[in-house]
Amino acid sequence: MFSVDQDNFWVAVQHALNQPIRTRCAELAMLLDRSSLLELHHLFPQLIDHIFGPLGTVCWDLRSCTSNSGEDVKELYHFFSPCGPLFKLIYTLLRDPNIKYEFPVSYLPSKIKQIIEHPLGHPFYSELVNMNPQTRQITLLLNPFDYYFFHFAYHLINPLQQRSGSMVTSWNTVYYGLCCHYILHFLPTDPCTKILPEFYYNGKNRNKHISPPSSAHNSPRNIGPPGLVSPIVFKKTIEDNTTVNLDRQQPCNDIWRSETVLTVFVDMWLYNDSVSQKINNSDLNNSYNKPVSMRLRYNELPTGEYMRIVRVLIKQLHSFSDSAKCDDTNMSELKKVTIPMIQGKFYVFLRNLIHRWPLDGSFRLVLELWLTYIQPWRYPAVNIIKKINPTYVNPDVEDVALNCDKQNLHPTKEHLNFIAENLLCYVVIFEQLLPRFGRVDLVSPKISLMLYRITKVFDQQNLPQFLREIEQYVENHQQSPTHQKYIGWQNSLPTVSPNINWSTTLPASRISRNNRNGNVTFMNSTIGPADRKWTVITKQKILEFEGPNFCYKPLFSQPPAHEVFELMLQIKKSSRLAYNLIKMKQQEQNELYSGFWGSIKYFLQSPMSNDEFSLEERKKVPMYLEASMGNLRDMFDITEEISEDEAETTMISNGNGFEISQDFKFLTPDKVRTRLKTIKYDGDPDLLPIRSDECAFLVRMLYQLALYINENFGDKFYYFYHNPSFWGRLCRQILCPPMTVHKYDKSVIGSPRINVNLPPRISLRYFASYQFLGYVLFGALIAWTLNYCIDIYLFTLLMLFILYKFIRAIPNTGSSMRHSYPTEGFGNISFNDSF
């Protein structure tokens, strides 16, 4: 055992931070274990900055390190685990309740800043706000545990660190795994599970009575404002507490870590400015004059890693909340307010996200996040207790609850309250999404699968019935009470396109005019006396989330909205096109690999196709579309057969159809296919994306070899290529000619297209093609059957190649030097044999 003196401590720390991951973690663990409290106190904020790089500096790349990193991943998981060396440091610092660290308010989302600056404040942040008397700047004064999790959550939304996460295609990163671990560890579903290590911390004294501030966001049945849980727990538990050791039995000591993780993760990730902040066109135009961090905030969509992390959080919160039914500990009150706390935040987050996300294959991430939230019955507490192993669980695979009976995989009467409180999340987002599927290529396997997922979820047992039942109690003319001070969500939500059949965001005058014209027919007029128990809940939630100018119109109107028939018509057309496309692909494949040579080609290489999807994936499209059609029929009780001609005539006569071919604003699937045929690659041919008829390993290896040769002999290549002698003509037969390519300079704002002149160079990419390899192997097989040595065979091939090039290099009348340079800039120089 030895101790590190003060003089050598920072030298040892700096040396450890400069080491590779495994050595770094080991040396830091040793230093943290053998240092004094004062040294640890000063080291902690610098260590956190070095790990997460909040100012865009070099960090530990937790969002770039994947499972492919081997032992480094295990070391990082151990170092950051809830009982690992870093948390041991945190709990050591927590022994002194006076140790606090300042977290800049500038790192917080704009909505959190507004909450902090509001006179009523927020119960969680009110005791953390600190104003520097000298600089008059507001910061959050945090204990080490809170300080770590604020930085950990901010790392995911930090605009200066977005690039590192967006460059990684694998979802299994260290950051994702740590998020799963923290969510499961600090938000346990089993009431018998203790949050380890058991630690008493008296730095958060919330035993004094705190009156829950009133808020316009609170529904009458809410326990308190969003995120306020501790006063409720205190009030209930302290009154029932009859133990002698009051300090150790304080409810805050049981739940304060869970409350921090829950509040910080939800507020940081669901209030993210890049998603929830309203952006005008002027903001986009002016963003190029702002710092890089602001430009990233406006231009960057959340990464796939972000979507999967939020989805894991939503799953666990469903089970965390569900476990309150069998929990009599101090944690039960926190569990009860979890879902009410996130409802409005998640709805705003999702509405903005869907509005900005392009409807391509990546939209599946957003879709699954939405479907996860609106199906809490799929994540009961008894089922989610199983650990989410990021190594073996792929979040893109459809979730099926394990060890759970099928009758529990659909909503029951106990879920009516959740459906009523989140009616907008079901209906408005469904109405927002459904028309978009009529303007995309449903023949695409990814798009057809997404449509099938939506219709399958909404057609599951009991859900359409429950939605109809709740919609019966909603009035279409929503008015905000005149005596209530309203702070609306509608300022941060995108406008819902005006539509006479579905929910709209319109001025009050237009809403009233639509109602007078009879454009909306509600089911209230057709039902008898009904129970109005959901009326207050649904009206209040509509007012909270969308504002007084929102006009709710039911999803299950009679007859169904024309958008439903439009989509069904599009599904019918796309199903026919999908069958035709499959037949065409099968015919092409049969023609390509027919006969003796076709069989050899099929054996030597994988099936060649310019299609992004395989034939097997294409064959699933008709099944998805037919199942989607059946689900829509069941969901909306449509029994009559839909004729394409009649449907088109009906839509045009109602004024609801449009002629896509005459409207340049809509990019139809036919236009997309036409444009794909004219797209041409103008970059460096050696950097062309690897094709299906090439060996990826050989392409990369031969490119590096060619790059090395060109860098070392480029000057000689240039000299010989422009030499009028025989050797110059021979080089022109072997080397690639000069040419002008185009690329986009992404280091400059606007990414301008620039020209790049490539000199004479050698290219070896052809030798990585399966066709070339097949010919070589076939020739080697013939040489082997004729008892020729492989060395002689390869030498003969090389000699034949050189002889062929020598013959081509013989002077020919009228031959000229090949080049693709533009003529400008070279004066009167003529690139030919006579120079």
From TrEMBL:
Keywords: Membrane, Transmembrane, Transmembrane helix. One of its GO terms (cellular component) is membrane. It is found in: Membrane. Coiled coil: none annotated. The keyword Transport does not apply. It is a single-pass membrane protein. The chain crosses the membrane at residues 792-810. One of its GO terms (molecular function) is sphingomyelin phosphodiesterase D activity. One of its GO terms (biological process) is sphingomyelin catabolic process. InterPro entries: Sphingomy_SMPD4. Pfam families: mit_SMPDase. It comes from the Eukaryota. This is Sphingomyelin phosphodiesterase 4.
